[in-house]
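Handout, tutorial session.
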Amino acid sequence: MSHTAHAMLVYGINAVAEGLRAGRITALRVSKRADQRMQSLLVLAHDRGVPIRRVDAHELDRLAPNSAHQGVVGDLKAPREYDIEELVRDAPSPGLFVVLDGIEDPHNFGAIVRTVDAAGAHGVIRQTRHAAPLGSAAAKASAGAVAHVRIADVVNIARAIEELKALNMWTVGLAGDASVRYDQIDLTVPVALILGAEGTGLRRLVKDRCDFLVKIPMFGHVNSLNVSVAAGVALFEVVRQRNAKPSGRLVGRFPPSDV
């Protein structure tokens, strides 16, 4: 079960451009700005048949307060709602998903969505409670990737992990106290990476449900990474392994044939 998705405002040239490319922008409000990036954006909007209204900068400041709107605000259609079974069924094999356990900062959430898109992962699963709003700040931080990435909202993350397992996904939680490094397990199989809240990490109930717990080793004075950076490190290790020839040297290898 997921909450009702609502249309939202997006601002900034990158975020609006991605919304246009995804076919989800229904209208633009633009202030006077004559640089090449804005001209390219207006051409894209015209090609997509999106109405453009000229407004003064004060109206944009009111619509997107305390933000760098870069002279443009767009109306973004509400995203389609997905459930976990749909996400997994529609993903090419091997699937790759990110599960968020209590990520409440919209900038971190947006940065994770941007990285999910960049890594070619197939969707994000997050809890309806204790989750960053899927709003303008997250859209801006994602550089517009929220217009492309499929997101499933669930009531219970621990239950979602069990559902992923039942759909033949391996669940790998990132935890600072894990004994195995993130690059020591086979990530070429269908995988869901589980990321915990800023500061507190994965909740115990969620940790207990994961097939594997892995850590990103720290070599400096700080003992943890920002959650969006950790997501990037782990996602691109998946990409690296899937693009590399099998070495046969990975610890904890779990080929699907052994499931």
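The second record follows below. Compare its token runs with those of the first.
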Amino acid sequence: MPAIRYESSKMNGRAPRLSLSEMNLNKTTHNEAFRRTRLQWAVLVCCLFGAGVAQGIEADVRRDATVQAVERALPSVVNIGTRTKQQRHGYAYDWFRDNWRPYVQELPPEESAGSGVIIDEDGYVVTNIHVVEGAHEVWVKLSDGRIIKAKPIIGLRSTDLALLQLEGNPGEKFKAAKFATDDDLLLGETVIALGNPFGLGGSVSRGILSSKSRRASPDSGEQLSEADWLQTDAAINPGNSGGALINLRGELIGINVAVLKVGQGIGFAIPIKRVAETLAEIFTPETMGKLWFGARFRPGVFPPQVMAVESSSPAEIAGLRKGDTVLRINNTETRSFIAATRELVGAADKGPVPVTVRRGGEQKNIQVRLAPEASFFNAELIRRRLGLTVEFNRNAGFVITDVEPDGPAASAGIKRDMIILGIDSMIPGSMVEAAKLIHARSKGDKVKLDLRFQQRRGPFVSLVPAKAEVVVK
């Protein structure tokens, strides 16, 4: 039978016409091409899968998120050892009992252990104040095994935080911890406690964040004086105090502080927000150099940012604003809030200090003139704002020596010779501290004063407590 043919499309524009043998040949060729393509894809998938398997075999499955977080944070965590001199102050029977030895005897020094976290590359370490308070010697062991002497800089009992400085080699830099964002906490997230439990050395324990605002006392179940401690079931034991509580990013979310003695597996840490606020308060030109600056830098941010500015302070008068990023102070690049504070204190006696900040994408140059605190925060400031004159007696308090007849203090019933013991529930330890408390109040605010006055009954004189509210002018 003759082959059936189709006319070529080249002639009339219709579809090309092929013979059955040509059609079968093309079909065979198409199937073969399809099989080859499918084989190529299979080979490619196998290669990719094989490479993935090979890569998976090479990767260590043990290096999970916890291990990686520890690797990032552990170089910033240190072990702290302290030595405290001990003396015995005896009485007469002690003296005779000890065969005529002196009344005051030197005893073997008491040693203790704790933990800390490096927060600045220049070797500044944050820890709990109860770890180093009263110590005559402080030694720090780094994660690489080196032991370096440290000196306490400053601390605050109300928040149980202290700042140390490592006495390393000149110019030596240390690995600083990265601060987590304030309040960036997830209830139930994995957290890791790093520290020196029982003085055994660097230790790691894992748990979850059990509470973001715990107030239960670690000793007796009473309310804590510090608010919003973090609670975790990660093992925190004696010696862990001052160590790091981190998240899976390796970021510092808290400073370990206490463990609940009753029950098991409940530890507490000071949240990083409170840590930053305390550091910003205790490491300032005011505390380090007795110079009034009036602004606070946020710790853990590089370069530092301004977190607060006092009204009518040198910082506000110079034009510094909350949220400014501080780039340079005295023409020196600022690496941290500690470096910024030290530069301010060091340059203050040379006149106005040049400061370069970034605000809204623009750089601004300002001049800040720091003032000695005593030249501003004094008895004159208190007189101008409350209408009374005081003299500070370290043993008695603030003795009122004069009261303006038509002033706000007289209107509140305050009289001469009364003694001010407290201002707004605070007990100032100097004239500067008292004047600062008064300066912080706005015109028209009421200041609460805790007073004592003498009351005579016959031959007896007693001190009677009293309270008064004085309107600030």
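Points raised in discussion: The radius of gyration is 35 Å.
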